[in-house]
Amino acid sequence: MPDQLINQIAAGEVVERPASVVKELLENSLDAGASRIDIDIEQGGIKSIRIRDNGSGIHKDDLALALSRHATSKIRSLDDLEQVCSLGFRGEALPSVASVSRMTLTSKQQDADGWQVQGDLPGELKPAAHVNGTTVEVRDLFFNVPARRKFMKAEKTEFTHLEEVVNRIALSRFDVDIQLSHNGKVVRNLRAARSEAENARRIATVCGETFVEQSRHIHFDADGLSLRGWIALPVFSRASTDMQYFFVNGRMVRDKVVAHALRQAYQDVLYHGRHPAFVLYLQIDPALVDVNAHPAKQEVRFRESRQVHDFIYRTIHQALADVRPGESQPAAGGQETYPFSAQNKPPDAGFISAENRYVPQTISRQNAMSFQVAEQMMAYASLAATVQDMEPPLSAADHPDQNLHPLGYAIAQLHGVFILAQNAIGLVMVDMHAAHERITYERLKQAMAAGALAAQPLLVPLHIAVSEREAQLAETHQALFTELGMELNRTGPTTLGIRQIPVLLARGNAEILVRDVLSDLASHGSSDRIRQALNDVLSTMACHGSVRANRQLTLPEMNALLRDMERTERSGQCNHGRPTWVQFSMNEIDSWFMRGR
């Protein structure tokens, strides 16, 4: 095939739209060591894309070569390919873009003259006045590929995609000045950040002030892996995955192992259908990650995917668990609200009386033993206000220091549903059922983890047919099933036998659960299905074993509940992901009554 046709075929993989061009060119600028990049766009990038940087520039002898296929200075051997440290390395981007546009490449190195080459005349060099660095101008994208050009969207849509690419690059390199202009108007002017405060300012520019206010900064190192960045608290959940930025060694990626780990870490605190927001940076030995998995370099392959998955999951899971009231106050407004409606509403809080423990109505002889454990564990589900936790009622004349407790001290109960408390900031409202539900749930999980999980042998073993690969996975990960109370044996090349299950799952569908676990193991190298199924049972028990709506509490009982919330992991959300408390500052309350105006 002619070289032009080969380049156009390659462009179909690398250049999808103007945003793809900007991504490739920006990565080249960063690889060249640029500390400032100016991006000028016309008509959403369809008419013109011009990117100028102050990087090291391209040598005169390499300028024409840069437009040749598979020409790169970033790797020279197989060893380099196995530990890529640059963003670009395939040598496809420039020739691919040049084959579907009218491209001009101008560059100048330190103490050298500037030179220019055009994409349609790659062998002809011309002198050009230029400062140190490189300018790439791409005009009339897909002018010679009408079939691709007609699939381009409206100018606004294309620019939205392009702007998102710039946002990702801005979040990947805080040390670079970036200016984005569209049709002659400056849209983004991001100054280089050199401190945590300036980093947060750039994140606020891209993700919004509320994200910064409702997020927690983390930094954790272990086993040669490092994870740092910002994770939004569950109260800042999103309706989509539009605010999820994950970088591996500075490269923006979307990886199913990473996505699964983060989804698992948040699953116990997010309302159904909501998505977390985060800006995270994973540093890993380049030799342990393959970035050559996709022409657009947006996917990676980890050589130790299980280790990476578990590291990310444990780090985020524990970071969310460590958040306590007072570290970040859920605001009364200003963030996305939980989408409650008639079709999508949280579980009703109006259950049976608090004294009644949850016991299923129908208990067969075979699984009756399972609920003996439930009964024992539900002993932990009594009202949080125990005698030891009781505090004497407080009078206005003898009120303790409100700074000692972030949730303050109870002053009243509203309609038997909400606790009103006064703290140093102002007024705290607590959904008492939601709060006690989380406290009870966490205690049940701790109780289950503290002792041996009760298991129930099946009178008749259950045999299920699986693929040979699934049977091998079950045999390899047999310890996982045993740890959680399930005895699973390989009884044939494509047959598994289930001989024992956890008593709490006695009425569940063991076959479906095992198949789901094997599917997770095949896709992600790990599975949390059994533990999640157990947690679902505990969550239901906690929901029914917690204080109900319209239960009148005394001040000592209310204060005891507040103290338990301050000690309990994930107490900002109930088991279903609903917020448990909200803070109103005195300034907010003053504004309701127009005080100070």
Describe it for me?
- By secondary structure, the chain is an alpha+beta fold.
- Helices cover 34% and strands 22% of the residues.
- The strands form five sheets. The protein has an eight-stranded mixed sheet with strand order 5-4-3-6-2-1-7-8, covered by helices on one side. It has a five-stranded mixed sheet with strand order 9-10-13-11-12, sandwiched between helices.
- A hairpin with a 5-residue loop joins strand 3 and strand 4 (114-118).
- Helix 2 (18-31) runs parallel beside helix 7, helix 10 packs parallel to helix 11 and helix 13 crosses helix 18 (555-567).
- The termini are far apart.
- Residues 333-398 have low confidence and may be disordered.
Give the count of helical stretches.
19
Helix content: 25-40%
CA-atom Rg in angstroms: 29 Å
Mean pLDDT: 80
| Major sheet | 8 strands, mixed
Structural class: alpha+beta
Shape: globular
Strand order across the largest sheet = 5-4-3-6-2-1-7-8
Query: In percent terms, what proportion of residues is strand?
Result: 15-25%
What is the terminal-to-terminal distance? 77 Å
Number of strands: 22
pLDDT < 50 runs, ≥5 residues: 333-398
What are the salient characteristics of this protein?
single chain; about 600 residues; 22 strands; 8-stranded mixed sheet; globular
Question: What's the quick description here?
Answer:
By secondary structure, the chain is an alpha+beta fold.
